[in-house]
Design brief:
Its EC number is 6.3.4.13. The protein is of the alpha+beta class and 438 residues long. The protein is 32% helix and 27% strand. The structure holds adenosine monophosphate and glycine. The site of glycine has 7 residues, from loops.
């Protein structure tokens, strides 16, 4: 451990940390940070009903970036962690750094890896990073002609951030043409859809590969897989994620090395060469084909939700130390320790999620946390000391056990007690890991 970190470890025994965001991912980050004996307070901006109830977490009702920087300065926040992509794309890291405030995340320019699909695809193409073939269009006629030439299936993606609504996996030509009309002609996604990336459809199994980057060094976190579709058997509409588990058996040690060598490290180096030194969490969404070859579906410049909930429950030791190394540029000097158990997290979603989730339903009977069960809040609010639903994904129930099968049982047993009107969840979270040949 470097002298600099040792010094700050000794000093930092009453650390205050700021976490930006309000979802299950942010609850999991705050929950883990608050376990550190060095931390006296984790401020959640704005947080949710669960973070309001948890010891050492304090919700603050601030979302404006300048006001967040004022808060960090006035309260002498040791460092800030950013959960969602929107504040990163809006330049929260640029702003905090300009005021000499410590923050872990990419700058607005580096966050283009997520905020512009065309930027990410161009970078991957230039630097030979494996990804699906593609072309980018802002002219609808040219896009329609390209689709006609390539044939279905194809994937149509809005270039910009579209809150999970910007990707259409078109199984037919008609669906592809409709997606182009929706984005380029009818402007249904606003400026996010003013350019579209049209991609070759890839088959295989998806996995989430999340790392921390300090500008030079990369520290891989435990692997995970999420379930993006609403219904069992990966049916129904795409969602933000209906459940996740960690470890992902498909990421074998051999594949891990390959992903680092072929995708993650070349991306970090490419960003450096482009003068956009990358710092922060980097999440590669991978598609692994039947032969075990990985390709990059997308990059996110943040942690995954609900992957974070499973990953954080498995992280041993003091997360603040890892983050201090990340901020000091010394991620090569540490090795995180992982609970060998599997974590399976099941999302409980509100009535009509993901279309028009209903708010205001009372939530009952949330079990207490135990050694092998943790419940993270996302779309919950405290109203007159009672919990009610406040957005699409409401809770994430994480079970931990030596096997996927047992971890699932623990999560589902807890879920059977929880009640709110219109509650939806998948009954098959972790099925791929259960059936895995790896
Ligand atoms: P993205 O936001 O780019 O990860 O896309 C959301 C989801 O769409 C992914 O998790 C995949 O399930 C699917 N998807 C994206 N790109 C492709 C592709 N090229 N081939 C097949 N499925 C894709
Ligand atoms: N779970 C997918 C994501 O966070 O983007």
């Amino acid at each position: 451990m470097s002298q600099k970190i040792l010094h700050s470890l000794e000093e930092g025994i009453s650390m205050k940390i700021l976490v930006v965001g309000s979802g299950g991912r942010e609850h999991a980050l705050g929950w883990k940070l608050a376990q550190s004996p060095r931390v006296t307070a984790v401020y959640m901006a704005p947080g949710n009903g669960g973070t309001a109830l948890q010891e050492r977490l304090y919700n603050i009702n601030i979302t404006n970036l300048d006001e967040l920087a004022d808060f960090a300065e006035q309260r002498q926040i040791a460092f800030t962690l950013v959960g969602p992509e929107a504040p990163l794309a809006a330049g929260i890291v640029n702003l905090f750094r300009s005021r000499s405030l410590k923050i872990f995340g990419p700058t607005r320019e580096a966050a283009q890896l997520e905020s512009s699909k065309d930027f990410a695809k161009t970078l991957m193409k230039c630097y030979g990073i494996p990804t699906a073939e593609y072309a980018t269009f802002s002219d609808a006629d040219l896009a329609h002609a390209y689709v006609q030439e390539k044939g279905a299936p194809l994937v149509i993606k809005a270039d910009g951030l579209a809150a999970g609504k910007g990707v259409v996996v078109a199984q037919t030509l008609n669906e592809a043409h409709c997606a182009i009309r929706m984005m380029l002609t009818d402007n249904k996604l606003g400026s996010a859809g003013a350019r579209v990336v049209i991609e070759e459809y890839l088959q295989g199994e998806e996995a989430s590969f999340i790392v921390m980057v300090d500008g030079k060094h990369v520290l891989a976190l435990a692997s995970s897989q999420d379930h993006k579709r609403l219904l069992d058997g990966d049916q129904g509409p795409n969602t933000g994620g209906m459940g996740a588990y960690s470890q992902a058996p498909i990421i074998t040690p051999k594949l891990h090395l390959r992903v680092m060598r072929e995708i993650i490290l070349p991306t970090v180096r490419a960003m450096e060469q482009e003068g956009l030194c990358y710092t922060g969490f980097l999440y590669a969404g991978l598609m692994i084909d039947a032969q075990g070859n990985p390709k990059t579906l997308e990059f996110n410049c943040r942690m995954g939700d609900p992957e974070t909930q499973s990953i954080m429950t498995r992280l041993k030791g003091d997360f603040t130390c890892i983050l201090e190394h990340a901020l000091a540029g010394t991620l090569d000097a540490i090795e995180p320790e992982w609970d060998q158990r599997t974590a399976v997290g099941v999302v409980l979603a509100a009535h009509q999620y993901p279309y028009a989730p209903r708010k205001g339903d009372s939530i009952y009977y949330i079990p207490e946390q135990t050694e092998n069960l943790v419940i993270f809040h996302a779309g919950t609010n405290l109203v007159d000391d009672k919990l009610v639903t406040s957005s699409g994904r409401v809770l994430c129930v994480v079970g931990l056990a030596d096997s996927v099968c047992e971890a699932r049982l623990i999560a589902y047993k807890a879920i059977h007690r929880i009640q709110f009107d219109g509650m939806q969840y998948r009954r098959d979270i972790g099925y791929r890991a259960l059936n895995s040949k790896h």
